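Supplementary material to the annual report.
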Amino acid sequence: MRGLFAILICGLASAYSAAAVAGGDIAAGQAKAKAVCGACHGENGDKPLQPEYPVLAGQHVDYLAKALKDYKSGARKNAIMGGQAQALSAKDIDDVTAWFSSRTGPLYVKH
Ligand code: HEC
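Predicted assembly:
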């Protein structure tokens, strides 16, 4: 019985970690970032081309995904990103957020 319980806990733990990375395809996300987003945010999302373009590298997957879904729905309004997000499918959002989140960014909290 105890063994069964351990298996159950392991199953739950791995299901949880899979959900945390949202199942995005990092390679597909990189291709999208290179082709589209890189023009403003940089392919790695760490060196935006203008100071008003935010750094995306190292940001949480769920934060990036929420921003893109909000631009797409109109809940977050920005003329540039509204247009960009309209062109993204749900899978594109999973992929591109997995890519940018996997990069090392220049932003961190200094202790
Ligand atoms: C033409 C330039 C341009 C392109 C191309 C572009 N972005 Fe943006 N992006 C911006 C600007 C400007 C903002 C800031 C908008 C705002 O103030 O809400 C932004 C904001 C964002 C944010 C919100 C970041 C935050 O910290 O809240 C995300 C996520 C994002 N972009 C992802 C993408 C992705 C993914 C792509 C490619 C599919 C992309 N962007 C393409 C200019 C661009």
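Confidence is low (pLDDT under 50) at residues 12-20.
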